[in-house]
Design goal:
374 residues; alpha/beta; six-stranded parallel beta sheet; three-stranded antiparallel beta sheet
């Protein structure tokens, strides 16, 4: 793959969610990522998280399989895994063993709770990790339960993207002469970091520690979603005075009650008025009035609609991989041109080729008969 990370080889132990997302990001930007799949597992051709890398199926519990992983690691710059603490060590593939045979290896570990701490040995999911850091407490409407934003905050923002950033940082350090090292990437740590601004607002008295009453959590009438007459929704966000004025001018909102934009006592009343206003027209009609202005407005699009929006089309925000529409790699570079994403390799599709590259082509049949590969 072409891209700014071309020339790097990353070994990825197959998993779900944030680990594959990290592998996808590294591959999207040019790294050669080799996915180690479990023998007999299935790779969905529709899964964008698995795109653009080769697959070797290895039984890591067999002596031959573990030895094969070590041979791969000798050729690699980095490794990412997302198992519970201790799993890789029990396989004889922990960081002590692997960095001993490759002193420059960057060993990325993705977990929910981290490698240490009272919760570290136990299972969890995105909703649990963001609950523990205060992030979940801030999302939702006043008087209603906290509402997770799918698994974007813990798994992908606080987990996968943090690990990708950590991998690139540590790989850059190696390039500058540092030794290889372990990255302990916890979704709890990452989701806490994503909430840095809100914690800062709270400490400065700009944020109440309750849900749905603040500037960015649907408390403000000018930062919320509103239903339109056709049952669809629009998103409104003119916080700054000049954008708020532009919004009022475009919709003809001369009601003096809206002059007190930041008076929290009036927010419930203003929200009711805006809700009634937006119910008077369809979503597309509001787009005609408010799109391409400084009113800080956008239609709320469905997953089917978003790839067709003119702005997304113009920027090629979505791409087609095989027969499936997927989000395109991001961000963009002014000079480096990355290859288009490739469809996922089927589980083990590249096992024989990778074995040959390692000089073990003559062992393919023997290893397969022993169940070490697939």
């Amino acid at each position: 793959m072409a891209g700014p990370l071309k020339g790097l080889r990353i070994i990825e132990f197959a998993g779900i969610g944030p680990g594959p997302f990290c592998g996808m990001m590294l591959a999207d930007h040019g790294a050669e990522v080799i996915r180690i799949d479990r023998v007999g597992s299935f790779t969905a051709p529709t899964d964008p998280l698995l795109r653009s890398r080769r697959s070797i199926a290895i039984n890591t519990r067999s002596p031959e399989g573990a030895a094969l992983v070590k041979d791969l690691v000798k050729t690699a710059d980095g490794l990412i895994e997302g198992f519970r603490p201790g799993v890789m060590e029990r396989l004889g593939l922990g960081p002590d063993e692997l960095i001993a045979i490759n002193k420059k290896l960057v060993y990325g570990r993705m977990t929910g709770w981290g490698q240490t701490g009272p919760y570290a040995p136990y299972a969890g999911h995105d909703i649990n990790y963001i609950a523990l850091t205060g992030s979940l407490h801030t999302t939702g409407r006043s008087g209603e339960p906290p509402a997770p934003a799918c698994n974007y905050v813990g798994d992908f923002g606080g987990g996968a993207m943090m690990l990708a950033f950590g991998m690139v940082s540590a790989l850059l350090a190696v390039k500058n002469g540092a030794a290889g090292q372990v990255i302990d990437c916890a979704m709890t740590d990452g989701s806490a970091l994503l909430a840095s601004m809100i914690y800062g607002f709270k400490d400065s008295g700009m944020w109440l520690d309750e849900r749905g009453v603040n500037l960015l959590d649907t408390g403000a009438p000018f930062y919320d979603t509103y239903e339109t007459s056709d049952g669809k929704y629009v998103a409104l966000g003119p916080i700054e005075p000049q954008f708020y004025a532009a919004f009022r001018e475009k919709v003809g909102l001369d009601d003096p009650a809206f002059d007190e934009q930041l008076n929290k006592d009036r927010w419930p009343e203003l929200k009711e008025k805006l809700a009634a206003l937006f119910k008077t027209k369809t979503r597309d009609a509001w787009c005609e009035i408010l799109e391409h202005t400084d009113a800080c407005f956008a239609p709320v699009l469905s997953l089917n609609e978003a790839p067709q929006h003119p702005h997304n089309v113009a920027r090629e925000t979505f791409t087609k991989v095989g027969n499936f529409v997927q989000p395109a790699p991001a961000p963009r570079y002014s000079e480096t041109v990355a290859d288009a994403p490739r469809a996922p390799s089927a589980t083990g599709a590249d096992t024989e080729a990778i074995l040959a590259e390692l000089g073990h082509g003559d062992l393919y049949k023997e290893y397969k008969e022993k169940g070490a590969i697939g």
